[in-house]
Amino acid sequence: MENFLFWIVPSASLLALLLAWYFYKQMKAQSEGNDTMIKIAAYVRQGAMSYLKQQYKIVGLVFWGLVILFSVMAYGFNLQNPWVPVAFLTGGLFSGLSGFLGMKTATYASARTANAARTSLNGGLTVAFRSGAVMGLVVVGLGLLDISFWYIILNWFMPTDPATPTAKLCIITTTMLTFGMGASTQALFSRVGGGIYTKAADVGADLVGKVEAGIPEDDPRNPATIADNVGDNVGDVAGMGADLYESYCGSILATALGAAGYMALGDVTLQFKAVIAPMLIAAVGIILSIIGIFCVRTKENASMKDLLGALSFGTNLSSILIIGATFLILWMLGLPNWINISLSVVIGLLVGIVIGRSTEYYTSQSYKPTRKLAESGKTGPATVIISGVGLGMVSTAVPVLAVVVGIILSYWLAAGYDFSNVGMGLYGIGIAAVGMLSTLGITLATDAYGPIADNAGGNAEMSGLGKEVRQRTDALDSLGNTTAATGKGFAIGSAALTGLALLASYIEEIRIGLDRIGHTALNMGDNISKSIHEATFVDFMTFYNVNLMNPKVLSGMFIGAMMSFLFCGLTMNAVGRAAAHMVDEVRRQFHEIKGILTGKAEPDYARCVQISTKGAQREMVFPSLLAIVAPILTGLIFGVPGVIGLLVGGLSAGFVLAIFMANAGGAWDNAKKYIEEGNFGGKGYEVHKATVVGDTVGDPFKDTSGPSLNILIKLMSMVAIVMAGLTVSWSLF
């Protein structure tokens, strides 16, 4: 029965890819508009593809360097599974492919969305949302295809040891987790590079265009406006696609590995059921996401509440259906304590909803916090910055408490109300993360829809379409800001739960690493010895002296917390440097190219695209490599206790910091939009200029540093897991 159920996983992935292709062809069949609209879309598409081509060259060099390292470890020193180098490459390839396909779709969809909005609001929403659905379905389709492909291959080639039959699935799942590191590495480069690109262009366009020259957003007279629109695609589409691909795969693989390590109990059948459970939940989630996607539509002259309701109906329908499907799946698998494990999935979904609603409350201009932030602009940009920082800090309370409650409840339920049952408890936390991302097909569609709507508004402005069209695209764009903020909340929340599940995966990799170097037993003291195959999670904690009184653990925790702030500082400064070059260039063009501001001369758009591209490529390498090097060096110096401390410190500090940055940035952005709707004087007044400054500060918060943190958390965990063989073989202390 369970062998038959497994084939639902690759079948669902192929269905997702087939629907993605259908939506893509459906979008391409729509008209791209008049000649000006086609020309502008071509500029943006060419700039985006040129950037990705350069980025993939640099990332390719990093990947080949890591593949050589893993090959030496695997084939030279027997510290790795021989499949690891290849699995790592496929993870990076599929993660990059997810971002590339999503971005290609977005660059073709923006002009078509603007053109459809000339006829009706529902037409624009349908084109933008179905195009966003291409990204959502490609991510989940490629993710599950990669997971099921590697499971089939490894299960076929790896022999079973009659002495320890449950060890096979442990080795298979730890090897599969390696492609999670490949996905995380690619995602971090995409997020950081894309974030630097888009915000350098955005800051340059806003500060010189809006504040100094007083021209509207997306005005064709602004030299940085094409680079700004390109940035929406490379940062908010390609970067986000690679990001959520690794989140999706990471949550499934971490849960599967936890199952392999701690639900075995000598029963291979039970172990297999526990491993495929998260895969099946994700597979059924794809089918239910497709149902939700087809249910999204709206009426003409819809209000913001109506638009939000249209998207919410699709996502809520998918979420409700996945709850019932989860109970059915776990009942059919016959897992012990299946009701409580199903409730853990429900807990994960509820935590995601709470984080999303909290994000919406603190960042949407429909609610008091953002309106109060906009009002603070009456006293200048300084109070906007102070109020925004305060708002972001306060906004961390609800998501953190939601995650705390989610961790405790999912652990307690899955563990059968026994907190000493660590293995089952961690499985519950992992499967809660899977629940949170189970309907990623539609939640990512609502997220990817945002940049498409934003670019559609830019195209409408630059093409000189009517005021009514711009109002429709602005409504779609404003909705996109809220859905994007909610999507970031889901990604960050799932990173917190997945990070905890990955700690269990790290211990399982330590077990395999010890076995590989011939260390078959743990010396527990008092002449007590335990076989590594029988040792529990707690036994490993005792053996390595992982407790708060161990200075190696404390040192690792401080380094992990520091890594989050160091990483953010590096990426924020990178945006600042790249933006300074953009500001200088826009000012130069306004000064030297006579007639730009009167519309008699065309700006040099290509020069601004080139500046953003070079700045992003140059600045993204060091922060990204730091995330890979830190866990390796910590392991070599402080050993296993230091690495566990690093992961705990990075997870706790990184999660809170990511929430703060995402919400503060989102609130600054929407406070500016609230002013632009005509409140407190509207555009052109000092209060508007003050909120533009706030929005400029918030840009790298919400689109560069903040979103990259959830990848940083998981990448450090993935690197620690992959390098565990080296850590157990040698460390300084």
Describe this structure in words.
The protein has 733 residues and is an all-alpha fold. It contains 21 helices and two strands. Helix 6 crosses helix 19. The longest helix has 72 residues. The radius of gyration is 25 Å and the shape is globular. The two termini are 49 Å apart.
Overview features:
single chain; two-stranded antiparallel ribbon; 733 residues; mainly alpha
Short account of what is shown:
The chain is mainly α and 733 residues long. It is 82% helix and 1% strand. The protein has a two-stranded antiparallel ribbon.
Summed up, the helix count is 21
Element pattern in H and E: HHHHHHHHHHHHHHHHEEHHHHH
Q: How far from one another are the termini?
A: 49 Å
Give the biggest sheet. 2 strands, antiparallel
Helix and strand arrangement:
Layout: H1 2-6, H2 8-28, H3 35-76, H4 84-117, H5 121-157, H6 167-213, H7 225-262, H8 268-294, H9 304-333, H10 338-363, H11 368-375, H12 381-394, H13 397-414, H14 422-437, H15 440-463, H16 467-516, E1 521-525, E2 528-531, H17 537-543, H18 551-592, H19 605-676, H20 686-722, H21 724-729
Antiparallel strand pairs: 1-2
Helix pairs in contact: 2-5, 2-8, 3-4, 3-7, 3-15, 3-19, 4-5, 4-6, 4-7, 4-15, 5-6, 5-7, 5-8, 5-15, 6-7, 6-18, 6-19, 6-20, 7-8, 7-14, 7-15, 7-16, 7-19, 7-20, 8-9, 8-15, 9-10, 10-13, 10-14, 10-16, 11-12, 11-19, 12-19, 12-20, 13-14, 14-16, 15-16, 16-19, 16-20, 18-19, ...
